[in-house]
């Protein structure tokens, strides 16, 4: 399997981590969105929507990270608890995946990505931050004590949501301090070696990116104002 993705992208990392949990061998093809590498001709021939992550597995080309996670679990780990086959257990995972896509990750993109320079700062940023806090309060009240989202086993929903939360935590390392259950749950997910390895690569990339940005700011010509 080939994964076309970018280490800074939470959905890309969610797919890569799912592969690790499912025991899938893969080749990661990095496409740096900031350099426009996702617009190259070769990638457009695979995915005309030029979004990441995208996978190629034999004759299958597929994008949309949660659909990819579902495919990986179904194809390579059908008996695992990553995406349980029993209807009610699977419905719980599907609920969280849909909530993540429509509510949590949308709120993260709206409230956090402008601060990272990925989108213009909106006039109603404070309202978007409040909306994100509302989503996390809901998550905080929904996690079973000491467990993962749907019980004692990690699922692809835990992976997807935890990857999204790395972005507000990058902007503010203390972001989860007011959400005790979420913070403890995130710690449980992040401690698993399949997650930790990919997350560590992201942290290293983010540190380099922030250092480069700080250096750029430092070297900007100073504008002197005469009075």
TrEMBL record:
Pfam families: GST_C, GST_N. It comes from the Eukaryota. InterPro entries: Glutathione-S-Trfase_C-like (IPR010987), Glutathione-S-Trfase_C_sf (IPR036282), Glutathione_S-Trfase (IPR040079), Glutathione_S-Trfase_N (IPR004045), GST_C (IPR004046), Thioredoxin-like_sf (IPR036249). Residues 1-80 form the GST N-terminal domain. Residues 86-222 form the GST C-terminal domain. Belongs to the GST superfamily. Homodimer. This is Oidioi.mRNA.OKI2018_I69.PAR.g12843.t1.cds.
């Amino acid at each position: 399997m080939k994964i076309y993705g970018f280490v800074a992208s939470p959905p890309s990392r969610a797919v890569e981590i799912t592969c690790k949990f499912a025991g899938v061998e893969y080749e990661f093809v990095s496409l740096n969105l900031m350099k426009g590498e996702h617009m190259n001709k070769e990638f457009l021939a695979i995915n005309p929507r030029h979004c990441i992550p995208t996978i190629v597995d034999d004759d299958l080309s597929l994008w949309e990270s949660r659909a990819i996670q579902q495919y990986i679990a179904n194809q390579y780990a059908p008996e695992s608890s990553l995406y349980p086959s029993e209807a009610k257990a699977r419905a719980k995972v599907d609920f969280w995946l849909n909530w993540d896509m429509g509510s949590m990750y949308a709120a993260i993109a709206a409230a956090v990505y402008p601060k990272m320079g990925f989108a213009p700062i909106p006039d109603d940023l404070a309202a978007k931050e409040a909306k994100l806090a509302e989503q996390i309060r809901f998550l905080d009240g929904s996690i079973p004590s000491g467990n993962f989202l749907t019980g004692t086993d990690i699922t692809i929903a835990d992976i997807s949501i935890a990857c999204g939360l790395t972005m507000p935590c990058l902007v503010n390392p203390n972001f989860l301090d007011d959400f005790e259950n979420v913070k403890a749950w995130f710690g449980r997910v992040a401690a698993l070696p399949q997650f930790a390895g990919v997350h560590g690569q992201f942290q290293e990339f983010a540190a380099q990116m922030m250092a480069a940005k700080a250096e750029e700011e430092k070297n900007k010509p100073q504008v002197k104002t005469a009075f």
